[in-house]
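INFO  loader      accepted 1 record
INFO  loader      residues=310
INFO  predictor   begin
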Amino acid sequence: MLLKYDETKPYLGAYVRIHCYYDAKIDISNVIQQCWEKVEQVQLHMNVYAKTLEGDLSKLNVDGFKGVKVNKDLYGVIKESIEYSKLTNGAYDITAYPLVELWKNAGLQGKLPDEESFNLAKDKVGYQNLFLVEPNLVYFLRKGMKVDLGSPASGFVCDAVGKILDKNRIKHFLVDGGGEIFCRGSDQGQKPWVIGVQDPFDKDKLHGVVLLKDKGISTSGNYEKFYTIGQERFSHIIDPISGFPQKDAVSVTVIADTGQAANEISTAISVLGGPKGISLANSLKNVEALVIEKKEEKVTLYQTKGFSLI
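INFO  predictor   done
INFO  writer      dumping tokens
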């Protein structure tokens, strides 16, 4: 007989849920303590909004031009993020934070950024200006650069908690980072995990569900987070290349081998749009994707052949 543990705690403006089924012989309290300690570490060191310099990302965003030694987890996330930037030709770029700040302030002020501010922010963006020196040194090659790990950190924390559960012989679990999920085994040790895909046009409905096992899943979209300037709605997801919010992809769901990969790819596809995004997904091993686009009131769905929605 398997016992159940299920708890949710706040994390980086969202939440983390750890839901697992375990053998009674396992000291679950010790395992769960390790999991929540890992969550706290990630929240400290990968939080772009931290107001102190205790976390490594905060230190990096202040002194990155001089070079900053960061912890192993942060270094690994940045390194993998650069690989996805290369893979997507810059559609995914963790250095886009100056543009994110620019458009966030534009939303608060209710007016579009002026040309000078836009160009200044855009000049600070570019993953090519991130320089890594093994084992843990990160440099910014341009002053004023800032890294935002809001995308990969949520997926990473799901994977990191999953590794702790794996190590401690817990075979059935789901870790939810607030839009990103990694699961192992089966629900109650008996049936596949059922993951709902939100209907982007009606928050009270699901577009459908997917059955998941030993996979990560992430949904990115502009249906919950957006800015309104004048009469126009702007996505919170910024195209690092154009410098403008992406327009057409209302919702992107990606299934991959890890939560971090699913998160990074879904963000990139949100920028690329349906046809290019699905082409990217098809080029990657063990990746499935669903894109819901809306152009001039017309809704179009794109998906990989292996994406199974019930």
